[in-house]
């Protein structure tokens, strides 16, 4: 998508390039506003049909549930931007959730920050394996992370055995983390919003952030342009893995009960959120804000369906249809944008 | 060019030869683990456990050779299974149910193909979407229900051996072998099959050379749909139950087996023989591990490692070369800058 846009901008001297860039920027900003608009419509319609939807506790629930997915979507976006994919996040989350929660039982009174560090370390090591095999082993990331999805889940099964961690074995201060609020807004949601903001700023304004887009737009050209592609992709996997590890600890705090199936299938939901949020599955275009909004939208839809009394059996079918709609919409937008840029060129050109 | 082709042919031979060695190793391991491994009862059981997955690897091989992927296979299986249960419990006669389910399978596959070829969407994203959608439809159809009142005449297909095979082969594996021969002929000995390699190697070039790329892909996804629906019917008969999560997650097993069979994830390379051998290696290993009391749910460790090895081994010589170069450069640098 941006590939077309950027070729277009390069062909022209500065003035025209800048205006083309503005058009591209505008369209992608509109894409995010589009999600917000859908979200607003959805919330309004649901609230009219069932005012309970806007109950403080319900909104808090949606926000807290979204934080885990928004975090995962953020890490996934970093990877997807570089034309790679991380399918192992669900398994990494599961392993980290169990191992970190298990620490409370094994070491009475262990400080909570240390538990988060352990979760992070587990995630980063998995991310390291993903990045190493992808970058140094030159195996397609789809294959690497598919294999890691299996392997990490297998390790999880061996470690957990038939057991599970139950909420009663976790200290109260840990379980309280997702429940803490400031002025009615969950602290976690605020934290995640800040993190997403920082990541968005980084991707927009830092050289290494922009390079992720360049790599995803055209990996060969990026390498030839002197961008350290390997290092950047490796870092993206480390970040995605680390975030999945942290999200695992949050998962433990949120749900309390963890067995060896925790986080199964999350990878597809996260990718759904990322794609609904307007990140191109083949890289080079999209934003973390969009991805986080995508996660929020998916979670809100599920909650709305529940509140409206629609059988939860419809959840998956609707999520799937929405995902297909989002992909088709993005394709339409990118075709339209390419045509618009072409028209400008012929219009302004010699 | 000719040399290049010959080199490639040699690579195929090596890969399939490697799979044969792996298969022998698996059989020896199985024998070592348990005396039961080679009994007809166990082979039959092994057949049962792999049949539907094996069937689904065939269209997946064709699709991956073309440079696409279909992650919705297990969801089409699940949706078909749910439909079999639902339609039958509504009093439809079984032959009509089977025809209807196969038609739904074609439609599901064609929808994938339509979105991918006519709207130009990436198959990875589309089939992740339909993976969710088709599974969602299965959930909508059955809800929490379990239907297990199928006539014995049909469920017997799932549990009895094929006649005249000494009790070794199941119907599902019999169907798999028949379909495998058919796919091998189509892929390796017809213009249509050869065109899949061309498309997988360079889609644009294929289009300019006059191949009907879009139509070919549409056909492949349609075929994948109907074959997965067939697998869904067999799956239902084997377990004589239709529940909404039948076959959940099997898409990853199918992809793993196909890649293990030497089919390149980038398209343009692969053989049916490789896929069939990979099915045998995978099924044998799974069964041997089961007999050795290995935690079955941790089988993923083995599957994942196999998947990684299947892509690492063909590149081993390349790694060796690059690794040496890297070390040499480091030595050079160390030599230049005395410390």
Structure write-up:
The complex is a heterodimer of chains A (350) and B (339). With 350 residues, chain A is mainly α. Chain A has a single domain (2-348), classed as Orthogonal Bundle (ABC transporter involved in vitamin B12 uptake, BtuC). Chain A contains 14 helices and two strands. Chain A has helices at residues 2-11, 14-49, 56-81, 89-106, 112-136, 141-160, 172-175, 187-205, 207-217, 219-224, 229-255, 266-276, 288-307, 315-348; strands at residues 181-182, 185-186. Chain A has a two-stranded antiparallel ribbon with strand order 1-2. In chain A, helix 3 (56-81) packs antiparallel against helix 11 and helix 5 packs antiparallel against helix 11 (229-255). Chain B is mainly α and 339 residues long. Chain B has helices at 2-33, 40-65, 73-89, 94-118, 123-142, 152-159, 171-189, 191-201, 203-208, 213-239, 250-260, 272-291, 299-312, 316-336. In chain B, helix 1 (2-33) packs parallel to helix 12 and helix 11 crosses helix 12. Chain B is globular and about 80 Å long. The relative contact order of chain B is 0.18. The model of chain B has no long low-confidence stretch (mean pLDDT 87). The chains are: A mainly alpha (350), B mainly alpha (339). At the A-B interface, helix 6, helix 12 and helix 14 of A face helix 5, helix 11 and helix 13 of B.
Structural features:
heterodimer, A: 350 residues, 2 strands, 1% strand, B: 339 residues, mainly alpha, 2 domains, 14 helices, globular
């Amino acid at each position: 998508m941006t590939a077309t846009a950027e070729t277009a901008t390069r062909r022209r001297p500065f003035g025209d390039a800048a205006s083309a860039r503005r058009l591209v920027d505008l369209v992608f900003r509109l894409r995010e506003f589009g999600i917000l608009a859908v979200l607003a419509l959805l919330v309004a319609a649901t609230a009219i049909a069932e005012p309970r939807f806007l109950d403080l506790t319900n909104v808090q629930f949606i926000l807290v549930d979204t934080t885990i997915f928004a975090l995962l979507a953020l890490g996934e976006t970093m990877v997807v931007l570089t034309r790679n994919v991380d399918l192992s996040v669900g398994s990494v989350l599961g392993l980290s959730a169990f191992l970190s929660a298990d620490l409370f039982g094994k070491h009475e009174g262990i400080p909570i920050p240390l538990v988060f560090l352990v979760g992070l370390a587990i995630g980063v090591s998995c991310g390291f394996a993903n990045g190493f095999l992808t970058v140094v082993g030159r195996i397609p990331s789809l294959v690497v992370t598919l294999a890691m999805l299996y392997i990490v889940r297998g390790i999880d099964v061996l470690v957990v055995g038939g057991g599970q961690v139950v909420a009663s074995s976790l200290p109260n201060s840990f379980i309280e983390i997702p429940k803490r609020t400031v002025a009615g807004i969950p602290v976690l949601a605020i934290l995640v919003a800040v993190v997403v903001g920082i990541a968005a700023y980084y991707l927009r304004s830092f050289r290494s952030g922009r390079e992720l887009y360049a790599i995803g737009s055209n990996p060969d050209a990026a390498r030839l342009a002197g961008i350290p592609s390997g290092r950047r992709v490796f870092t993206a996997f480390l970040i995605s893995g680390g975030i999945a590890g942290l999200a695992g600890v949050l998962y433990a705090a949120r749900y309390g009960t963890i067995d060896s199936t925790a986080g199964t299938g999350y990878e597809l939901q996260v990718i759904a959120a990322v794609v609904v949020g307007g990140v191109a599955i083949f890289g080079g275009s999209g934003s973390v804000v969009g991805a986080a909004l995508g996660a929020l939208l998916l979670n809100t839809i599920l909650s709305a369906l529940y509140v409206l009394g629609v059988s939860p059996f419809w959840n998956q079918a609707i999520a799937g249809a929405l995902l297909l709609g989002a992909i088709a919409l993005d394709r339409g937008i990118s075709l339209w944008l390419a045509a618009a840029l072409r028209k400008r060129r012929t219009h302004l050109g010699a | 060019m000719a040399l290049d082709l010959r080199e490639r042919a040699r690579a195929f031979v090596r890969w399939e030869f490697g799979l044969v060695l792996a298969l022998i190793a698996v059989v020896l391991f199985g024998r070592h683990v348990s005396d039961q491994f080679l009994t007809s009862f166990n082979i039959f059981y092994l057949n049962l456990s792999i049949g539907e997955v094996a069937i689904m690897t065939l269209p997946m091989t064709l699709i991956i050779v073309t440079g696409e992927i279909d992650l919705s296979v297990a969801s089409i299986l699940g949706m078909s299974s749910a439909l079999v249960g639902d339609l039958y419990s509504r009093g439809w006669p079984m032959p009509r149910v089977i025809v209807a389910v196969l038609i739904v399978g074609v439609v599901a596959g064609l929808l994938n193909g339509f979105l991918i070829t006519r709207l130009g969407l990436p198959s990875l994203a589309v089939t992740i979407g339909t993976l969710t959608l088709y599974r969602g439809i299965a959930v909508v159809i059955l809800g929490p229900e379990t239907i297990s009142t199928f006539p014995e005449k049909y469920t017997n297909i799932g549990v009895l051996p094929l006649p005249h095979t000494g009790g070794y082969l199941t119907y599902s594996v019999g169907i798999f072998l028949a379909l495998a021969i058919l796919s091998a002929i189509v892929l390796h000995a017809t213009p249509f099959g050869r065109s899949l390699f061309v498309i997988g190697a360079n889609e644009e070039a294929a289009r300019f050379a006059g191949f009907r790329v879009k139509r070919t892909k549409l056909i492949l996804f349609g075929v994948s749909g109907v074959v997965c629906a067939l697998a869904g019917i067999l799956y239902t008969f084997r377990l004589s139950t239709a529940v909404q999560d039948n076959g959940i997650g099997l898409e990853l097993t199918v992809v793993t087996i196909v890649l293990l069979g030497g089919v390149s994830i980038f398209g343009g390379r692969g053989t049916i023989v490789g896929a069939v051998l990979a099915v045998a290696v995978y099924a044998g290993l799974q069964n041997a591990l089961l007999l050795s009391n290995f935690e079955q749910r941790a089988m993923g460790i083995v599957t994942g490692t196999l998947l990684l090895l299947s892509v690492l081994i063909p590149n081993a010589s390349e790694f060796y070369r690059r690794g040496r170069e890297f070390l040499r450069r480091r030595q050079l640098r160390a030599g230049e800058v005395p410390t």
